[in-house]
Amino acid sequence: xxxxxxxxxxxxxxxxxxxxxxxxxxxxxxxxxxxxxxIGCGDGALLELLAREKRVDGRGIELSQAGVNECVxxxxxxxxxxxxxxxxxxxxxxxxxxxxxxxxxxxxxxKEVLKHLLRIGKHAIVSLPNFGHWPMRLQILFRGRxxxxxxxxxxWYETPNIHFCTIRDFVxxxxxxxxxxxxxxxxxxxxxxxxxxxxAPWWFWNLFGEQAVFVLRRxxx
Length: 221
Hints:
Blueprint: H1 8-18, H2 21-27, E1 35-39, H3 45-53, E2 57-62, H4 65-73, E3 78-80, H5 83-86, E4 95-101, H6 110-120, E5 121-129, H7 134-143, H8 167-174, E6 181-189, H9 202-208, E7 211-218
Parallel strand pairs: 1-2, 1-4, 2-3, 4-5
Antiparallel strand pairs: 5-7, 6-7
Helix pairs in contact: 1-3, 2-3
């Protein structure tokens, strides 16, 4: 049996992924040995984790050249690209799973990006911060200012997030007629990326979930 504590490389990979709370939850949803495209893969922490633990055939797209350089330096297959403009070049069902983690809210056209995810992948995994989380509501209500939290520490004038949404907003988007996604799984997470294991309706997650992960697929005609 492999003991990660005795493997410095594996421990480093796990620690890098742990810095982003949702990555462990996403990795647990990916099938071993599958073909994966990670859009907006950043420094490649998730791809590296999936390659080591799930032996996936992983590819990545990253907007920043610095991120691409770091990924390539780790031996990951990553190209520079923009989710808003470059997904159109990928064929239908090109990957088993397409991942978009903490990026949808930073795209120019989130609805079109989501439609491409469902077209390119047999499954799409989307994670996002919940702007309906109760501390954010209180900051707006009592301070009258855009919220700043541990997980969203950047002020409004510097944040890359341009389309703020709540868990409930995203669920409604998946139901739009020209999206019409099938939701296979939805997980609410706390700020540390730990699953909130309570059976509750959407309004509860919309209030108490700090972030969320969704597994979707395209509804077949």
